[in-house]
Write a structure and sequence with these properties.
With 282 residues, the chain is mostly helical. It has 13 helices and 2 strands, in the order H-H-E-E-H-H-H-H-H-H-H-H-H-H-H. It has one domain. It has a two-stranded antiparallel sheet with strand order 1-2. Helix 8 runs antiparallel to helix 12. The longest helix has 28 residues.
């Protein structure tokens, strides 16, 4: 009679767990440095987007003969849109989500099930590592704007601190929402169309193309009951001084609330989906 060896699972200390996931970020950082052209493409996408928005809104202001629209001067509107495009790119994790969908559909999820690693946290670290160069480049870009054009952004140092806090919430919340959509792949196999549709809707409904303050009142009121304002509008409104200071705490609390809700929903879907996971590609 052959005895089955007993498998002993080692309990990792918090320091070892932290080292494990920071190593993932470091390795992803090294891989990202091999594709520096992505940063150039990303910068071009933002600058071209700002130029297009500039030309469109300039024509609107001239044609209508106005100096302000929805509380925005032309200069304030362009600065707001620029920040929206930057934050929108920093929080975007659709590439990571596509890889996760393919992993579930093709059976590559197996390697995560047999290792002491969290599927959710591992891909969050991958996402942060892939976007790390963007964080660095845009940090210097935004800092330069704050130094040379202080009247445009960050009226006070507290605005900068709160912007970073709400930006971190935005990045995590965005990833959690992508993870929630990825988990539908356990049932439907191919859900890339869902991610693409979400990305397109996200461009409009989060204020990256048109500020949310210019939306119809009914749509604006509806969006306030969703996590969408906390993805782009809240960080940018704080950075540009458009959100009153007394609203900061409630905005952060609601952003964290939605982060918890979306994360729990994703974990529930993942735990149920893993039970029907077949473990082979197709």
């Amino acid at each position: 009679m052959i005895e089955t060896p007993m498998i002993i699972k080692a309990r990792l200390s918090p320091r070892e767990i932290l080292d494990k996931y920071t190593y993932v970020i470091r390795m992803t950082w090294i891989q990202t440095l091999e594709y520096k052209a992505n940063i150039v493409v990303g910068m071009f996408a933002i600058l071209s987007g700002v130029i297009i928005e500039y030309l469109l809104w300039k024509r609107i202001f001239i044609t209508r003969g106005i100096s302000e629209i929805g509380g925005f001067t032309f200069q304030a509107l362009i600065i707001y849109i620029f920040f929206c495009l930057v934050v929108g790119q920093l929080k975007s994790s659709w590439v990571t989500s596509i890889e996760m969908i393919d992993g579930i559909r093709e059976g590559e999820l197996n390697k995560y099930l047999i290792r002491p690693i969290s599927y959710f946290v591992y891909h969050l670290m991958l996402f942060i590592g892939h976007n790390s160069l963007y964080y660095l480049v845009y940090f210097f870009l935004i800092t330069g704007m704050a130094v040379f054009f202080p009247e445009w952004v960050f009226p006070g140092w507290t605005h900068g601190v709160m912007f970073l806090i709400t930006l971190a919430i935005s990045v995590y919340l965005s990833y959690a929402m992508y993870f929630l959509m990825v988990c539908f792949a356990f049932w439907f196999g191919e859900v890339r169309a869902l991610v693409i549709a979400y990305n397109l809707a996200n461009l409009v409904l989060t204020g990256q193309m048109v500020p949310m303050q210019l939306f119809p009142e009914g749509l604006r009121n509806f969006l306030h009951f969703t996590p969408l304002p906390y993805l782009v509008d809240v960080p940018v409104s704080i950075a540009t001084g458009r959100m009153p200071v007394e609203m900061w705490v409630s905005a952060i609390v609601m952003g964290m609330f939605w982060s918890v809700i979306i994360t729990l929903a994703g974990m529930i879907l993942y735990s149920r989906g893993i039970k029907r996971y077949e473990g082979f590609g197709g």
